Amino acid sequence: MTTEGLAADRLLLNRTSTAERVAAILRSRISEGYFLPGARLAEDTIGTALGVSRNTLREAFRLLSHERLLVHELNRGVFVRTLSIEDVIDLYRVRVLVECGVVRAITEVPRGIDQLVAAVSDGEEALRRQGWQALGTANLKFHEALVALAESPRTDELMGGVLAELRLVFHVMADPKRFHEPYLARNKEILALLQQGDGPAAAEALAVYLRDAEEQLVKAYRDAQPSTFA
Q1: Taking CA 88 as the corner, what is the angle to CA 84 and CA 90, rounded to the nearest 5 degrees?
Q2: What percentage of the chain has pLDDT greater than the value 90?
Q3: What is the rounded distance in angstroms from the CA atom of residue 156 to the CA atom of residue 99?
Q4: For 190-196, which contacts have Cβ atoms below 8 Å and span 24 or more sequence positions?
């Protein structure tokens, strides 16, 4: 095997690396609720804002399309995906498998407990400010930190995509305060159990938590657009 062809791939490698960084930025913005489902992402505006080429941005869009966060519509452009009831059910199936599996294995105070404490603190601050989008973000950060307790980069990567998709689901809730506020209290309960090193009990509480959230979201989808999501 020779290296003669690799030099020609250098520009592609640089572009891909930049595209991955751009995709990470856009993924974070989706997770934070800045891009709504159905929103069109204008290449010129975003490319100028980030200072990247059209080709790099298109590569980033392609990466996020594979993650089911964006969709390309012929002759119309790139849009943030609008998820279905089936998507919601599948996301929560994954969440139960991953999150509860991670938590159930804990038998002592985990090393990453500080990140959970910080996420709860951020949620309390958002509640004081009545910042419901920020409260939703803090909730997602809590679950991201839960999965990070496994100390597995692959699981972290998987969960990053799941949580970004989940933010697109949250937009269906007409009253975000009513939806997010009770889960802050439940996050505190799970945190308290983990601070005692009681992973099995935390996993049981989390399983009920996730089931309740799934039921609320599925109902909201059906109530919002019954003809589309039934």
Answers
A1: 110
A2: 67
A3: 11
A4: 190/103, 190/146, 191/113, 191/116, 191/117, 191/120, 194/103, 194/106, 194/109, 194/110, 194/113, 194/116, 194/149, 195/109, 195/113, 196/109
Partner residues linked to 79 by β-bridges: 40, 71
Kindly report, residue by residue over 54-77, the tens digit of the pLDDT: 999 999 999 999 999 999 998 899
Scanning the structure block, which residue is given the tokens 């059209």?
Answer: 54
- Banded pLDDT at 15 (limits 50, 70, 90): low
CA-angle at 145, arms to 151 and 23, nearest 5°:
90
Once rounded to an integer, what is the mean pLDDT over residues 7-14? 55
- Which residue in this structure is represented by tokens 């799970």? 190
Residue 12 pLDDT > 80: no
Q: Are strands 70-73 and 77-80 parallel, antiparallel or unpaired?
A: antiparallel
Closest CA to 78 of 44, 32, 112, 111: 44
**By the 8 A CB rule, do 127 and 150 touch?**
no
Give the Cα separation of 52 and 15 in Å (integer). Answer: 10
pTM as predicted: 0.81
Yes or no: say if 40 and 84 are a contact pair by the CB < 8 Å rule.
Answer: no
- What HEC string does 83-111 produce? CCHHHHHHHHHHHHHHHHHHHHCCCCCCC
CB-count exposure of residue 64 (10 Å: 0-12, 13-18, 19+): buried
Contact of 5 with 43, CB cutoff 8 Å: no
Quickly state the pLDDT bin for 227 (edges 50, 70, 90): very low
